[in-house]
Amino acid sequence: MNNLKKVLVIEDEAPFRKRITRILALEGFQTLEASNGREGVKIALSNLPDVIISDITMPEMDGYEVCKHLRSDPSTALIPFIFLTALSNKTEIRQGMRLGADDYLIKPFDLQELITAVTTRLERNQQFTRRIDDQVEVFRSYVSTTIPHEFRTPLTSIMGFAELLHSEYDTIDPEQAREMLNYIIKGGKNLSRLVENFLLHSWLFSDGPETRAVEEAPPQASSELIREVAVKIAESHERGDDVSVKVEPAVLCLGESHLRKIIEELMDNACRFSEKNSAITLTAGLSDGAYRILISDEGRGMKANDIAAIGPFKQFDRLVYEQQGLGLGLAIVRRLTETNAGSFELESSVGEGTTAKIILCRQEEQ
């Protein structure tokens, strides 16, 4: 099996091209050659080299077009790309870098410069590949363990109490039955939310058409909706007395279901990650021409690196704290605000609490 790294050299000057490929072959690389840009693109797509070295000024298709074309194709987008050029103009160099070039070799260059450029780009690409593989493995492990557990937990509660009601129907008194039904309803709501968030995440983060679908009927009274959702979530956590809500009315540029989901997720986090009898405040109103929603708690807070790492299926300190959910809430909130021309920000201090800030545009500003 051939494990030699493949290097494609695209250069219209045959003697110079042969010199480069000869040097690379002596250093243990497998070499491919192309005498113009169009041929180079064809060879790259069919052979998938590990590194591409390309001249800029060539007939039929110049180096910039080659780079642009290969960067737009998923199969070649991540292959390290090195330009050969006699140009030392910074504008030319910046243009190549904007197109996705990884490095430059300015003619004339010596043997060591060529080898160093190729090996450095290979090493960096391998490091990048290892990081991606590590992230994929973490994600795979999470999906295979956490997601089934999170779906099974409420389902187990539902099935357990339903089977008990069925088998003991004749002997259970009404009060016990009502208590069991409450557990079934609670488990059903938790399961429904998990499914809803999973499907919403799949839609929001899909590679399909633009997800910023403007809903037909934006809320006519945002203040009423925000207050209603905030109180409902607080009461579901038995935190009704802990929450204070102060909201100014406005008609916003996102639809009712999107606004409802944003408030639900942020209020749910505030309730789950702060102690009962500690304060949770929600304020919303106009400021500097935008509508700002702030939800603050006095909970355990988040570290700066955790805030920076917010993303789908991401939970923090799960091994330290018992917590339920798929880790989709904050990622969904961020995506919903951004796809509706808004912004989302978290400010937090460990042991002191967290403030979620949502900035949205008003309907009349569109």
CATH class of the largest domain: Alpha Beta
The secondary-structure element order is EHEHEHEHEHHHEHEEHHEE
- Could you give the order of strands across the largest sheet? 2-1-3-4-5
Mean pLDDT: 82
Radius of gyration equals 29 Å
Backbone structural class: alpha/beta
Using the 3D structure, state the CATH architecture of the largest domain.
Answer: 2-Layer Sandwich
Please give the largest β-sheet: 5 strands, parallel
Helicity, as a percent range = 40-55%
Count of individual beta strands: 10
What proportion strand?
A: 15-25%
Per DSSP, the total helix count is: 10
Q: How many domain regions? A: 3
Anisotropy-based shape: elongated
Low-confidence stretches: 208-220, 316-326
Distance between the termini: 61 Å
Instruction: Write the CATH homologous superfamily of the largest domain.
Output: Histidine kinase-like ATPase, C-terminal domain
